[in-house]
Amino acid sequence: MSGITWIEIDLDAIEHNLKAVKKKVGNDTKILAIVKADAYGHGAARISQTLMDNGVDMLGVAFPEEGIELRESNINVPILVLNPVLSEQTEDVLKYSMGATVCNLDIARELAKTAKRHSRNIRIHVEVDTGMGGAGLPPDKTLSFIKALQLIENLEIEGVFTHFNSSEEKDKSFAHEQNNIFKKVIKQLEDEKIRIPLIHAANSAAILDMSDSYFNMVRPGLILYGIFPSNYVSRIIDLKPVMSVKTRIINLKHLDSGSTIGYGRTFEILKQTTVATIPVGYKDGFNRCFSNLGNVLINGKRASIIGRVCMDRCFIDVTNLHDVEIGSEVILFGNQGNETISIESAAELIGTIPYEIVCNIGTKIPRKMYTTVKNS
After folding, report:
1. CA distances from 148 to 127, 129, 158 (A)
2. What share of the chain is helix, strand, coil (3-state, %, to 5)?
3. What burial class does residue 376 get, using C-beta atoms within 10 Å of its C-beta: 0-12 exposed, 13-18 middle, 19+ buried?
4. In which element (H, E) is residue 199 found?
5. Contact of 44 with 66, CB cutoff 8 Å
6. Domain edges within the chain
7. CA distance 102 to 111
8. Spelled out in words, what is the top-level CATH class assigned to the domain 243-370?
9. Could you say which of 1, 148, 284, 371 is the most buried, measured as most Cβ atoms within 10 Å of its Cβ?
10. How far apart are CA 282 and CA 261, in angstroms?
């Protein structure tokens, strides 16, 4: 890659955001940091190293291969695979010392067999479906399921958790209902003198707005990356954005009135216009929905995207900007001067969620990681 387009990842901001979450939830609450999807496009290995260096208790991944990548990058804190695993994945789960999510007795027995062959135990977390509707046990089946697990050797029941499906929405009533259902399951376990060491439910939105869902561990994801999940969550903690996306102008030209620009001729030039070309498109994860809609920052000023976002370039109206030249830096997401284009505002503009923006663009463009003294 030429480096004409790049992502900057501020590792100091990760440290800051983790400390902000710790302060919010309290010293007695453990942190399971979510680093799935390559840490939401931010680079899982380096992000996890920073989190580990700053005392995170556990890391959460979606699939075993994500955990393997972390282990091979010398990440040695506990890792939990949040999705159910298949029988052929049990060897990797054990080999790389990962915890497994379990909601099926057959898979639990496969995990146990694998662990027994190696004279080891394997950590498991039981997911309770309080309303997400996908994986997880029905609340009324959880107690009997855990009792059955207790009879299986080589399994260490380390945790029980649930997954909120609408804690970032304006109406959080269902999330509160889920939390109350989960509390009843925990109470059933306590009444049977079944002690599960780790109980977790709160995602980023719940950390901000549902303190009664903390239990003894929380699962921050998006807020670790300095992004609020929606407009309907409290801004009660100070977050610093971690990701900035930058490129440079590769061409400048003047177009006269009556000209059109880009595929489909969707933008007509109404007066003489100076157009800059930048080498970013949908192949880089920059959403085509920004066509004729989005903005970028150049020399600390906003400039409009005109025409359709192409596969590998976009067109920018720089008519009213001064000192713009080929090679000038362009900010797609981030700060420049007194202006900011946030991931949240960009997502809202095109009717999607911040998760999609960072996951799409973060895995397509080269990243430069830095701390206070910049290091790539």
Report:
1. 15, 18, 15
2. 35, 25, 40
3. exposed
4. strand 198-200
5. yes
6. 11-225, 243-370
7. 9
8. mainly beta
9. 284
10. 17
Give the amino acid at 225. Y
In tens, the pLDDT along 267-283 reads: 999 999 999 999 999 99
- For the annotated catalytic residues, the residue numbers are 36, 263
DSSP-derived 3-state class of residue 210: coil
Which tokens sit at 176?
A: 């509160």
Enter the tokens of residue 141.
Answer: 């089946």
Superfamily name with CATH number, domain 11-225:
Alanine racemase (3.20.20.10)
Which pLDDT does position 2 carry in this prediction?
A: 53
**Contact (Cβ atoms closer than 8 angstroms) between residue 249 and residue 327:** yes
Q: Which amino acid makes up residue 38?
A: D
**In this predicted model, what pLDDT tens digit does every residue of 45-72 receive, in sequence order?**
999 999 999 999 999 999 999 999 999 9
What's the pTM value of the predicted model, to 2 decimals? 0.94
